[in-house]
Amino acid sequence: MRIxxxxxxxxxxxxxxxxxxxxxxxxxLRVDAYxxxxxxxxxxxxxxxxxKKAEPSATSAALEDVLQWVQHKLFDLGGILATAPGMTxxxxxxxxxxxxxxxxxxxxxxxxxxxPLKEFILPGGGEIAAYLHLARTICRRSERLCVKLSRxxxxxxxxxxxxxRLSDAFFVFARWVAKVxxxxxxxxxx
Length: 190
Fold this sequence. Notes:
With 190 residues, the protein is mainly alpha-helical. The chain has helices at 29-53, 58-81, 97-111, 127-150, 157-180, and strands at residues 15-17, 23-25, 121-122, 186-187.
């Protein structure tokens, strides 16, 4: 794909086109869903930028690789959601069971280093961990929007499963980064 002009003026009246040409309002649930995925991807860009400022280590390199993979998957997911229902294209991206399994493996790897939770954790634990908690909450919102969209239009259930597991992964990554960087976790006091 080549984009020669950023502005087209075609959306000035509040409508946009999905992949496949279907015109929809910019506040439609589908546009909100893929827009929230884009917002999540942007926060991961901030996480990765913060990681580059931190002391390099094997653990940060491993997390960098995972987050880069996640950003590509989120771009794929946004493209899928931006496609009109029932439309398919050659080489259309897919979110599959392998992607969910990959996230589960990464969660399990990180959790080996973490103490079991006894209380809820307040978001924080250092700059990178805090941004990962922010990513978790945006991911949960994206998941909610996709669930709502799935009740009105066709949405592959693996998309919802992927987002659910991804939010779990961000929670574990936040805890893991805090531990690796020696940052405290703050427990919720009842």
